[in-house]
Amino acid sequence: MNYSSAWRGTAPRLTTALAMLTLSTLSNVALAAPINKSDIKFIGPLGADMQLKPYQTEHQDAIINSLLPSIQQPTTSITVFGEKLKWQNLDKVNALTLGGLQALKFSTHAERFSQGTLTLKGIEEAQLFINGEKQTAKKQSYELALPQGDHQIVIIAEQVANWHDVEVDFSPNTDIDTLTFSTTEQHGLSAKQLFDATTVSALSISPDGKHYLVAKRHYQDSTGNQANVITELKNDDQQTIYRFESGQPSNIIWSPDNNYLVYLLDGKLTQLNRKTLNLKVIANNLEGASSFAYYDNNSLIFSWSKSPTADSSLTKHYRGLQDRWSYARTTSQAYLLDINTGLSKPLSQGPLSHSIEDFNNKRGTVLLSRGTEAMQAATHPTTELIELNIANANSTVLGQFATFNQAKYSGDDIYVTAGPDFKEGLGRNLPENMLANNYDGQLYLLTDNGKNAAPLSREFDPAIGQLEVLPNGDAIVKVTEQDTIALYLYDKSKQHFSKLNTGFDVVEQFSYSTTRSPAILVSGSNASSPQQLKQLTISKNKATTLSDSQPQEYANTNIASLEEFNFTNTAGTEIKGRVYFPSNLDKNKQYPALVYYYGGTSPVTRGFTGRYPFNLWAEHGYVVYVVQPTGATGFGQQFSAKHVNAWGQYTADDIMQGTQALLKQYPFIDKQRLGNLGASYGGFMTMLLTTKTDMFSASIAHAGISNITSYWGQGWWGYLYSGEASKNSYPWNNSKLYSQHSPVFHADKVTTPLLLLHGDADTNVPVGESHNMYTALKLLGKDVELIEYKGADHQIFARDQRFNWWDTMLAYFDKHLKEQPQWWQYLYPEK
Fold first, then answer.
1. C-alpha neighbours within 13 Å on the C-beta side of residue 479
2. Calpha distance 701→682 (Å, rounded)
3. Which residues share a beta bridge with 325?
4. Where are the transmembrane segments (predicted)?
5. How many whole angstroms separate alpha carbon 445 and alpha carbon 437?
6. β-pairing, 475-481 with 484-491?
7. Which member of 225, 388, 406, 706 has the greatest number of CB atoms within 10 A?
8. Residue 333 β-bridge partners
9. What radius of gyration do the chain's Cα atoms show?
10. CB 609 within 8 A of CB 615
11. Cα separation of 438 and 430, whole Å?
């Protein structure tokens, strides 16, 4: 079995002398050695007067699984049925027999992937868990396969005749399968911690700032891929006053008068009275309804989608490029719902979908956006912004825009977020010979019913994302600022951006009150510290921590140290980056290194965890360099514009130059043991780099693009994304870009071992992109591996697949950069 979720770390340990002596002299011979009893913790008896043991009942597993979390915790004692019991070392146990249950607990550390057999002697009935996962035994012997790092072993003993006879033996498979054992609770960061830890998944603060709703999600072995979510309504003293545990609410909104909370649950739109906690069902049968908001205290405005009847015909007739999207023929319209009766009335109609941007109940108007055609050939469909008068159903077209993201009222004016090319380049801050990257969001203000427009962020380098407007007309914007995600306040009267002091490298979610001095509820994390929930008041610009996952989820955990590393490329541009170091780094040793990048139009942000766990890689003994090459947003328009029509031209140079600068800065990195990896556009970059350099000893491309033309024509977002990445360039007018920048056209130049990873249900970058490269390299006799994840789309979300995916990447690098192929061979044995 594979223990991808194992504890990992390099804290000092009490090493079992006999076991280590035996292991050091073994030569491919499995010889059992008892683990020193002083390296094993003991507690018991648990439930001393227990007449029947769990194995004598129909509920053995349930009983043991309920007890397990208490045993796993790093505590000095446990109180059971009112009796306080202390942990002690097993060698201090003098009893021959004991009633109830007993528990043994110890840690084992593997310097590398190790296999062997753990045998229980003198224990007649027991269950054994490694990192919380129950193991299957053959005559009280357990087969171990442990990746590098720390692993917690727990034994729940139910029947022991004589505790003096109890031993735990370990037999390694070979002389390289070395384990050390101890009672230490300090351990390295684990994959299970990163994925399973409780995190804030949704939050919302009431208009008066006195209540907030927070949803928290976690995973556990017993529920597998299914997340466990609890949503709580809390007051400003952090007391829980209402809790959703089974069904979870969605589309949560607060009434402007602060009296009610409305949400969707089990297909019903339900109203919760904040004072009495009474419930009222407002409406049923709202399938396809979303984006609810209070229009006033008596009515809700919302979007209602309708999908066409399932097509049973033998053919599908494409009416436009959007028909590659499964939802292309679904239409959405705006509706108004009366809270008292549940009656809904349409505000928009026709074959075009209308999206609600904002509304102003004092003016009696709604801002709607829509495409100008149902199906189009244009790379970027034109968006039309209209203002609808609810009373008379008259609508006014405020403009048609080739780039558009969001619009919101600010008094009689309207904020708009869009790319630099909005309104014929109003937001451009570029030389005339450069094409703008419209993924670099800008902020604008429309006045006089859209007749006039002013750029607000042309000199502001961060890229504007989410926009929210305060009652006084100022705006809160969530921005990409270099490799961080930050909140800024835009003061409309002073025309000035000021940063809000959240204390986070990466702001994840935020919600604000509408009080005179607005409060902001915000969740986020830092590169080296996990998620927190905070609240700040804009006037004071100081955050207060409401909850912190560090003490609960990451206690006694080693977390990699971090250092900023920037360099100046040959074009004279500073390229930002950061470096994660293994625990207990010894600069007199040589370490393998991994270089990670995206290279597309977004930077790799500084979140504590995510799909690519840099802290975990460092815990596995790798120096990890994250580089932010030319073309990303958040560094200014000229930096992001170099992404257009480049397809790796600048990015590859920055990665190679950055890696060389890294080696010069950190001489303890072994230049002969460098790995590189990336996903999506980063996967494209990995493939491209294998055709340009041999500085890397192993490369991994996840969901990468090998042929720009086939991605452009077949990927769900291919032609749309290419509208910026390949602006004004097509296979017929710029064949050089589409062919010569495509890695598969240079496959014969590849000398680096390459692992291709892909979800076989990927719609964004079809799996054929990896097949192209795999076919070429196989025919050329190159070292290439292809692994597909069944049913997975562009990202690997499922818990079991995520652990396997993380293991696969580390095992591949262990094989090529550490000369340790055993983990890879265990995961993917040769038939």
1. 29
2. 7
3. none
4. none
5. 20
6. antiparallel
7. 706
8. 304
9. 30
10. yes
11. 12
Cα 287 from Cα 273, distance rounded (Å): 24
Distance of CA 348 to the CA centre of its chain: 37
Pairing type for strands 698-702 and 754-759 reads parallel
Tokens at 626, concatenated: 């994250």
Q: How far apart are CA 549 and CA 555, in angstroms?
A: 9
Q: Specify the pLDDT at position 27.
A: 38
Instruction: Tally helices (H) and strands (E) across the chain.
Output: 15, 53
At 165, give phi and psi (nearest 5°). Answer: -95, 0
Tokens of residue 454, six digits: 């002013």
Coil vs helix vs strand at 772 = helix
Q: What is the 3-state secondary structure (H, E, C) of 38-57?
A: HHCEEEEEECCCCCCCHHHC
Q: What's the burial of 218, exposed, middle or buried (CB within 10 Å: 0-12/13-18/19+)?
A: middle
DSSP structure string for 408-463: EEETTEEEEEE-TTHHHHTT--S-TTS---TTS-EEEEEETTTTEEEESSTT--SE
The tokens for 113 are 């992937």
CA gap 65, 662 in Å, rounded: 47
95-99-100 Cα angle (round to 5): 130
| Cβ count near 392 (within 10 Å) | 8
> Residue 725: helix, strand or coil by DSSP?
helix
The answer to whether the CB of 129 falls within 8 A of the CB of 3 is: no
The torsion of the CA quartet 454, 459, 464, 468, rounded to 10 degrees, works out to: -50
β partners of residue 127: 156
Alpha-carbon distance values, 111 to 425, 619, 814 (Å): 57, 11, 12
pLDDT at 28: 40
Helices (H), 531-608: 549-553
Q: If 0-12 CB within 10 Å is exposed, 13-18 middle and 19+ buried, where does residue 187 land?
A: buried
Answer yes or no: are the C-beta atoms of 737 and 726 closer than 8 Å.
yes
End-to-end CA distance of the chain: 18
Are 540 and 220 in contact by the 8 Å Cβ rule? The answer is: no
Give, in order, the Cα–Cα distances in Å from 627 to each of 74, 138, 220, 574, 671: 37, 48, 33, 11, 17
d(CA 479, CA 506): 10
Per-residue pLDDT, 380: 74
Q: Where are the alpha helices (DSSP H) in 594-707?
A: 614-619, 637-641, 649-665, 681-690
The candidate with the shortest Cα–Cα distance to 383, out of 413, 348, 422, 415, is 422
What is the C-alpha separation between 477 and 486, in angstroms, rounded?
8
Reduced 3-state DSSP string for 350-393: CCCCEEEEEEECCCCEEEEEEECCCCCCCCCCCEEEEEEECCCC
Question: What per-residue confidence (pLDDT) applies to 4?
Answer: 40
Strand-pair partners of 88: 42
- Nearest alpha-carbon partner for 744 in 783, 795, 704, 699: 704
CB 418 within 8 A of CB 442: yes
- Strand duo 669-679 + 591-596: pairing: parallel
Task: Please tell me the predicted confidence (pLDDT) of residue 328.
Answer: 87
Mean pLDDT per 10-residue section of the chain, whose length is 831 residues:
38 37 39 89 93 94 95 95 95 90 97 96 96 93 96 96 95 95 94 96 95 96 94 93 91 94 94 94 94 96 92 89 88 96 95 95 95 75 94 94 97 97 97 96 95 96 98 97 98 97 97 94 97 95 95 94 97 98 95 96 94 96 98 98 96 98 98 98 98 98 98 94 94 97 98 98 97 98 98 96 98 98 96 77
b/e map of 458-468 (b: 16 or more CB within 10 Å)? Answer: bebbbbbbbbb
Tokens of 723: 């509208």
pLDDT at 649: 94
Spatial separation of the C-alpha atoms in residues 260 and 272, rounded to whole Å = 6
Q: Residue with structure tokens 């050329």?
A: 780
Burial class (CB in 10 A: 0-12, 13-18, 19+), 34: middle
